[in-house]
Amino acid sequence: MGRVRSTVTKINQRLNVKLAATILAGSTLLSSLLGFFRDRLLNSAYMPSENGALAGYPVGLDAYTAAFMVPDFMFAVLVSGALSVTFIPVFNERWVKGNKQSAWQISSSMINFMALITMAASVLIIIFADPLMKYLIAPGLSESGHALAVSMMQVIAVNPFIFAVAAVIASIQQAVGRFMFCALAPMLYNVGIIIGTVWFTGGVNLFGWQIFDGGIMGVALGVVLGSFLQLIVSAVGLAGLGFDYNFKIYWRNKGFRKVLSLLPARSVDQGMDYVVSLVEVNLASRLADGTVRAYQQALTLHMMPINLIGVAISNAAFPQLTEHLGEGRNDLFQKDLRSLLRIIFWMALPVSVVIFFTRGYVVHFIRNGGNQLIAGILGCLVVAILFRTIYHMAARAFYARQDTKTPLYISIFSITLNIILAIVLSMVLKMGAYGLAWAQSTVAVLEVVVLLAVMNRQMPKLFDMTFVRAIFKMIIAGTITGVVCYIAVLIMPFRYHDDSFFSAFPKFVIISLVSFGAYAAASKWLKLPEIDPILARLKKVLFGRLEFKG
What we know:
By secondary structure, the chain is mainly α. Helices cover 79% and strands 1% of the residues. It has 20 helices and 2 strands. The protein has a two-stranded antiparallel sheet. Strand 1 (204-206) and strand 2 (209-212) form a beta hairpin. Helix 12 (291-326) runs antiparallel to helix 13, helix 15 packs parallel to helix 17 and helix 16 (405-428) runs antiparallel to helix 17. The longest helix is centred in the first third of the chain and has 38 residues, at 100-137. It is globular and about 60 Å long.
């Protein structure tokens, strides 16, 4: 046991921001690739083909998608990002001052408190699944689709409880700069769903007794399996940290009370985001069968670069930003924040451009042969990719200062506008799922612009002319990249006869390499310093050995 603890401790060392961001981005990429494989399996089994050769089971996929809405909503409101951005700053205040006893009391209290409230939420979801699905989430589902969605929701209802405990454990590790097991855990969630899709859908037999007869409900069982696997891996990461857990809630601990006082604003903020998702699923369920799934798939694809760049970098940088403020170094806080915003914009811009022009290829990777509706929705969401990536870092600048109310007020305005636009564009103007996507992109722009404007007012020296000129240069580089990518796609277009992963992947890689190469060249020509570390690393990898031999 001691050897295992020693090994875990060695693996889970404290990391600097750059290495932590790299590991989180790498794990996000691997998790997203597993997610692509997961969705490809599901879509191949249940989504109709473009030419109608395969009937599929679009109602089943819509039911599966709708079943997640309330459990995910409860987790988002009660835990999710609300926990990390409120817990970590308060925890770090105690940790950097050496008050570990208080830090562990806060941690134990949060685990126990979150477990209790999410357990109650899970029970309520199971009890009220039928009316929730019928009147709130997806009233447009058929009778069979409704019954299936209710059954799936009751199975998935355990997720908020499992995820809540795992989230607190992950936040503890992130607060002290340990990211390895936090990075591994989400991948196991997708592994569980893949197991459910491949094996559980064929039925589950135990010692010759059939305990489950199979079907798409097997995927819901895989979701629960994945949740437990994620919790186990997260818990392993606590080894070697000296965590002193107690089955007790320390109500008198000032830090715990501080976290509770900060939670409501961020929780409402998170919950408001999911209100938009609930409205979108409600509206999509009233459209053609399969629209709920198609829209959700486009959202999943557009979230990959957001998670890979915006979430990974902001999560890795957040503990350091809070430490700067805890030490009274506001100058270092602003310097790091300015640099991080530049890096995120520089990375997200070409990715957004390339996804727009190669969206046919991108959709093909989760739906063999592509899907016109998903590709069209993804094209409308490209603007949201760029601005939502920036949003995560901008919002965490406020959270690091223990200001959860400013982002909340901005979110209330943005989400209200999003719901209005979604209804008007999709139903009144008859734009369907495309209207939902354009509402998302429009609001993403406004939300980030307002957030940065408020930030600039609070920190007047943050966005100087050097920063503005750099952003302008990046836009020029992005325009050049768009022209190059457009020409490359004209030369190597996606065809419907590209009916396998390997028939399309080489062309996609070539287009991407040429496009990103153009962006790198344009960045160097425009003297953007963000490209220098990458070129230096490439030079070392490609020519380092030759120089050594010389």
